[in-house]
Amino acid sequence: MDFKLTEEHEMIRQAARDFAKNELLPGVIERDEKQEFPKEQISKLGELGFLGMMASPEYGGGGMDTVSYVLAMEELSKVDASASVVVSVNNSLVCWGLDTYGSEEQKKKYLSKLTTGEKIGAFCLSEPEAGSDATSQKTTAIDKGDHYVINGTKNWITNGNSADIYLVIAQTDREKKHKGINAFIVEKGMEGFEVGPKEQKMGIRGSDTHSLNFNDVKVPKENRIGEDGFGFKFAMKTLSGGRIGIAAQALGIASGAYELAKEYAKTRKAFGTEIMNHQAIAFKIADMHTHIEAARHLVMKAACDKDNGENYDLSGAMAKLYASQVAMDVTTEAVQVHGGNGYVKEYHVERLMRDAKITQIYEGTSEIQKVVISRSVLRD
Ligand code: CAA
Ligand code: FAD
């Protein structure tokens, strides 16, 4: 496998790296402490084209490939995973979903504003009693002729309060099970739509996670995405690509912690020498480097599969499963390499360790990735 990057890829990676260093790093500890959404930074990311990277240029998107997107995700996540999850949801769930399956009118009206960051998007599938088991959702969308009426609650929604446009998955006909599910575009401000309380989180604390309530929300029929009954496939297909973005986020969190640990090992002294000269520490660095490289190969393979028009359900699930485990392992070891300083906020690695955990949970838990992988390989 040859993952040679083009000059353009290198430029995108450098631009994301510079942005992370100059715009995200200052204030990242404070935003984490205060659970503050990186509003200004997200708006700048929109201006720079990082919020609609893969979307079609005619709707304001960058028309870039998935490799460019994962390179940017890795660089941003090295520094601020709260900002990068906003980038991830907007790019690979909301913009990609609308660009691929939306109508011309939906793209003109919504996508063109989401690609530039003028509006922010959210993807609403999970419910209080239906996370992994996504088809058992209770939110209903009743067909009333020229509109649908949505009732129910969505849970843990990223960008819950900051978003303007929400892609909402709901049951239109329970009898038909997953074939009775539809996806809708809901705008903030529609009557009966209410943002619930903000979750108090362990990690990615700068991103805002909320429950959402729908009380007789009237949504015009033209806001349904795709044919009647396409909603569950829409969610699954969109999540297959989303998982590549989260895998890249996990890779970035791991790489960020690794780089900090490596520098620390070179400078911190104990027993009259830099700690890197103690084999126990040097071997930790060796393990981190090896696992990160392996994760990078899986992430790039999944991104290339998507770019080459190959099926990426399996490679994306493997990339997410593996990279998220590497993120947990590497960040935990990075704290250990830092000793007491690792436990202190100003050294960043404790935050990266807290942030790493979510990559094993959202966009399908690690157990769900194993369901996807095992079904795929056993079927083959
Ligand atoms: N692409 C297209 N269609 C797919 C598909 C895919 N990747 N995966 C499943 N389907 C289709 C199946 O073909 C089937 O359709 P047919 O009957 O027409 O063939 C239908 O969907 C139902 O499939 P299953 O029988 O496999 O469904 P299941 O109930 O066993 O569930 C699952 C499968 C993979 C476990 C799925 O429920 C799942 O992915 N759960 C996890 C949900 C999840 O990832 N949530 C993330 C929320 S968003 C988020 O988290 C964002 C964030 O944090 C930032
Ligand atoms: P459950 O499904 O109840 O799972 C509990 C445990 O059982 C897990 O360990 C799980 O892996 C395991 N389990 C369940 N089923 C199986 C099985 N068949 N085989 C083996 N093990 C199984 N959702 C959205 O829709 N949009 C968002 O923007 C979004 N953002 C999120 C942001 C944050 C910070 C968090 C915490 C969650 C977010 N989610 C979002 C929800 C997330 O996708 C779900 O939490 C996740 O899919 C797991 O669902 P659950 O929490 O209901 O866990």
From TrEMBL:
Residues 122-217 form the Acyl-CoA oxidase/dehydrogenase middle domain. Its EC number is 1.3.8.10. The keyword DNA-binding does not apply. Belongs to the acyl-CoA dehydrogenase family. SUPFAM superfamilies: Acyl-CoA dehydrogenase C-terminal domain-like, Acyl-CoA dehydrogenase NM domain-like. It holds the Pfam family Acyl-CoA_dh_1. Residues 6-118 form the Acyl-CoA dehydrogenase/oxidase N-terminal domain. Its cofactor is FAD. PROSITE patterns: ACYL_COA_DH_1, ACYL_COA_DH_2. Gene3D superfamilies: Acyl-CoA dehydrogenase/oxidase, N-terminal domain, Butyryl-CoA Dehydrogenase, subunit A, domain 2, Butyryl-CoA Dehydrogenase, subunit A, domain 3. GO terms for molecular function: acyl-CoA dehydrogenase activity; flavin adenine dinucleotide binding. This is Cyclohex-1-ene-1-carbonyl-CoA dehydrogenase. Keywords: FAD, Flavoprotein, Oxidoreductase. Residues 231-377 form the Acyl-CoA dehydrogenase/oxidase C-terminal domain.
